[in-house]
Please model this.
Amino acid sequence: MGERSKEELIYVFNKSDALPLNIDCAGITDPMPGYFIERGGARFFVFEQVLEGKGTLIYNGVKHELSAGDFYCLEPNTRQHYYSDAKDPMKKIWINFYCDFFSAAFEAMHIAGTGVFHGFNAADKMTQIYSLVKRSPDNEAIAYPVMNILFSILSDLGRFAGRDRETVKISETAKQTKFLLNESLTKKISIEDISAKLYKSKSQINRDFVKYYGTTPYKYLLDRRIELAKFMLVNTNMPVREISDALVFADEHYFCTIFKEKCGMTPGQFRQSRSEAPL
Model:
């Protein structure tokens, strides 16, 4: 982390697995030329609205230039590096939160991996969230009203991104790659296989996929397999080894290592935590 002297940061207490959403912290960052944040594998979502100035975000290896009026959503377990412009540093309002089903919502609304929404202004709603957190930094008291506002922002984002999709045609290579990956959650597939099926070079497949979906084919497939693994852990009695085999991981040890990196706990711990959650 870089300079943080002009950042008002409010931590929220009383987090609970019984609640669908847990707020970690929220704040307002005033302009600081030396400000930067760098994360790898954070477990929370980050929503930030740029109010003034300029900056840069490098999200899963893709570089985005930021300016006033831009909004960005950073998903869990992603590589994030963002910083202020030295001459015209950013002012922004933000919230970090945990919510398991937001990932599914991002997928359903076709905005997973997008990261930046240029010209999307949610300043009023972010200010409402910040006011709630500042008035009562108690997660049990504010989780549901904050969640309502976040879902309102998410709904607006879906419409905003849908408008852009009408004017930006996703390449056939990217769409076909995504189709092949979605078909291969329980069978082996490689970038070489996709290259051979689509008669495209591996570099073009990677380049197109990152351009339109904001992540690499490998990471997209891995994320989808982990999401399916979470569903199987909660909704079946399959042993961890069988889930690992079904999702074609190299072995159970590798599956458990990747699962813990992305979810912060082992598959067994994840299953246990969900079985103990109150109805």
Summary: The radius of gyration is 20 Å.
